[in-house]
């Protein structure tokens, strides 16, 4: 890694673990300076330990939500204890906690609605039908490499990058059983494409969603990142293209019919997105209100599916084509089953992260980090470093920390940090949920080291996307 980047990163880490010196440098003195207290150090250590357990989830099999939820409670309990003992305003602590929970509630309900739609489409076999169609077309390995990458790039802005990556990886595993090299390169390509595709859409990644919900970047402004995201995906894909075997897999004629109502659920999901955007852009209401309104569309349609459950048209009692379309009526459609199948560990992990980072911000550490990164380094280096850090630490706490710092920077810089936080996780296989999931799905073929081998190519795409953004969107800086 370039020493020009390593030195500032080390500076930030040291500033967090040496709060007294960093605070003295800012010249700030508040009545309850928790950054210099035992409670401040305790909170920081608790957060670091909790996040170490999160990063070790693959080896410990301890769900990532558990340590951060515990850390969140301990951090705020220690803050409240300090305030009560030293005569601080305990009401301020309670108000700060409520503010963090309100921010989480908006994120939680938005994601719950989106996850419910994705689960409904999955249950109606939308994604399985797409996978079977791709396999049936008889593409060769190089064509499938590009097709799965391009589909991941364009599906992830609507669906989450984890679902998108798992779907495309299922295609690779189905057709590439005899070519581990193709599976490894295809998985790398999918991870890069899914992360890049999510960076130019408010719905594509948790980080972009947080930026949009904060009102910092308008809905349509995200699409200024489309071409930089294309560059981020295309550069490493072009370099990997020639390493793909130029042969064709064995043909398959598998067909998977979608279940009744599948296309209408896809249409309702599109209508839900339009509703959320309209609520925010035209009426200045929180996007989550539009998403929850859209969830009611699925609930009402689910009620219709239940009421018409098992009714095969009497005019065609033995028509197999009609019978295929009625698949799914064996068990009635239940919207609450789809809600129950949401990624609850992920949703609770977000709670822990938001509340933990909020606690560190209340103590004063984020102000110190903001001083080091955005005043001493400069906005551009700071935002590029955010992307590099997100390859090691999850991009969600990093982006939430940046939003909490709320540094004074141009619109172009906010777009830059949105881009880097979204695509920086592609630098390592552990840097994004998509990469971690595919290491499990393609175990033994797509590994940390197979991804690391192509990190220079991915880093080249990362740098090229930043330069493309700074060139194309120069007017925003």
UniProtKB/TrEMBL annotation:
The entry lists its GO molecular-function terms as: antiporter activity
Domain Citrate transporter-like per the UniProt entry, residue ranges: 52-422
Bilayer topology reads: Multi-pass membrane protein
The signal peptide annotation in the UniProt record is 1-24
Q: Which GO terms describe its cellular component?
A: membrane
Q: Cellular location of this protein?
A: Membrane
Key words, A-Z: Antiport, Ion transport, Membrane, Signal, Sodium, Sodium transport, Transmembrane, Transmembrane helix, Transport
> Which stretches are transmembrane?
40-56, 68-85, 139-155, 182-203, 223-244, 265-282, 288-305, 347-366, 378-402, 414-434, 454-472
GO BP, one example? sodium ion transport
**Superkingdom, according to UniProt?**
Bacteria
Q: Which InterPro entries does the record match to this protein? A: Cit_transptr-like_dom (IPR004680), NhaD-like (IPR045016)
Family designation: Belongs to the NhaD Na(+)/H(+) (TC 2.A.62) antiporter family.
Its protein name is: Sodium/proton antiporter (NhaD family)
